[in-house]
Specification:
Blueprint lengths: L1 H22 L17 E3 L10 E2 L2 E7 L5 H5 L4 E5 L1 E2 H4 L7 E10 L7 E5 L2 E2 L1 E6 L2 E6 L16 E5 L5 E10 L6 E2 L4 E4 H35 L4 H18 L6 H4 L5 H26 L6 H20 L2 H4 L3 H24 L5 H22 L7 H23 L13 H5 L4
Helix pairs in contact: 1-11, 4-5, 4-12, 5-7, 7-8, 7-10, 10-11, 11-12
């Protein structure tokens, strides 16, 4: 029993360390700002850009159904709109479709240095001017669905304004997605810091993608050599789907090399990968612990995901993206089900159950972190998130290898037994 507790404490310490790393951003990470709006102006003259970037979170001037330039923004009736904030939640009509102009004035320290602005995924196309100079765009902003070309391309805009007052004019249009507006903060800072953090996040994503793709190939080769080991096929497909998703979500690295990648296909691949991940996760659990799970639950979850897959295949993005919150509820059910199965496997002394517990704990941490970052309660750090996924799949790989007998376990104390749980130490 003492050995079990020691192992449990080790796992708990590892997860605590990962939690602290993931949930406490440091250095120049993209942290939330505490900016106050004074007559349409954010004053950053005293901000310490060496310590952190400035999150442009607050109330911007907004002109619905208008595409204006700087002079027009300064002399046109407006109202204030919270950024970040989706139109579905902040506009009176509670709809995500339409177009409009965001306007903001920044007062920055007097310097001859260039500045940079990190622009996340915006819904759904945008054009950004700073002091009437075009600095960034994605897709084509229009006043109708036919005139608008959607695109998701997070990027860093670098500019040298030669003045301490910056006029930001941001045109956004959305007619293709259920959501409209700005979901994540924009970050302003020095070029070196903004660009370095962005490059680090992209690097972490690409490393995670390469790691997952390599695992997929290795386990697929093993399956062809041992066709009866169906678990290796399920795990190979799970790794492959996660690798694809890492390229078609969050930072959307695929748009770096293919900036004009068709948005309709991009968003469908993002959703398809999510459904397939859930399907292969259920199949993997079934292969590992078939006698401990529920065949009915497995069939229902696979069927639900297949139905979502078909609905996404035949419907428009504005339709299937509307039902994402409902789908996420089914994803939570799969995670809870996986935890129950793995804990039962621990009690029944199944091979590979301890590493799988570590993987499930990591999955819960990452899911919670993504939800918190999605809600804007914490700055997102994509590099650390990528490291978390590498840890997650390392744990899962060890568990699968132990199940296959490729990695041997120490029967003397590395596995939880019935006596450990229900009897006292002698």
């Amino acid at each position: 029993m003492k050995k079990v507790f020691k192992l449990f404490i080790s796992v708990a310490r590892a997860n605590l360390f990962i939690t602290l790393v993931l949930f406490v951003p440091g250095g120049s990470s993209y942290g939330q700002g505490n900016l106050s709006l004074d007559n349409g102006v954010f004053n950053l003259a005293q901000h310490d850009f060496e310590a952190s970037h400035a999150s442009l979170s607050g109330h911007w001037f907004f002109f619905p159904e208008k595409l204006l330039n700087t002079d027009q923004c300064l002399n046109h009736p407006h109202f204030e709109l919270l950024v970040p904030g989706l139109w579905n939640e902040t506009l009176p009509a509670k709809e995500g479709k339409g177009y409009g102009t965001y306007f903001l004035q920044l007062v920055v320290p007097e310097t001859t240095d260039s500045w940079a602005l990190y622009i996340p995924q915006l819904y759904n196309s945008y054009t950004l001017w700073i002091n009437d100079s075009l600095v960034a765009s994605a897709g084509e902003v229009g006043k109708t669905k036919e005139a608008t070309i959607p695109q998701w391309r997070p990027q860093v805009a670098v500019f040298n304004p030669k003045t301490d007052t910056l006029n930001l004019v941001l045109h956004i249009a959305n007619f293709h997605h259920f959501k409209g507006g700005i979901r994540e903060p924009l970050y302003f800072g020095k070029v070196s810091g903004i660009q370095s953090d962005y490059n680090l996040s992209i690097t972490g994503t690409l490393i995670a993608c390469l790691f997952l793709f390599s695992l997929s190939i290795i386990f697929l080769i093993y399956y062809f050599r041992h066709p009866r080991k169906n678990i290796t096929a399920a795990y190979s497909m799970l790794c492959l789907c996660w690798a694809i998703r890492s390229m078609f979500s969050n930072l959307y690295p695929v748009t770096i090399s293919l900036p004009d990648f068709d948005w309709d296909m991009l968003v469908r691949i993002e959703y398809f990968s999510l459904y397939l991940i859930m399907i292969f996760s259920v199949m993997l659990l079934n292969q590992l612990f078939q006698e401990l799970g529920s065949a009915v639950f497995n069939s229902i979850m696979i069927l639900v995901n297949l139905l979502f897959f078909l609905f996404t295949l035949v419907s428009e993005p504005a339709a299937f993206t509307r039902w994402l919150p409902l789908y996420l509820a089914t994803a939570v059910l799969v995670i809870v089900y996986g935890l129950v199965i793995v804990f039962r496997a621990l009690i029944h002394e199944k091979k590979g159950s301890w590493p799988l517990i570590g993987g499930m704990c990591m999955m819960i941490l990452l899911t919670g972190y993504e939800i918190i970052a999605y809600k804007g309660l914490l700055g997102s750090n994509q590099f650390l998130s990528s490291i978390g996924f590498i840890v997650l799949f390392t744990c899962l790989t060890v568990g699968v290898l132990q199940y296959l007998g490729i990695l041997k376990t120490d029967a003397s104390g590395s596995e939880l037994t019935y006596n450990d749980l229900y009897k006292k130490d002698k």
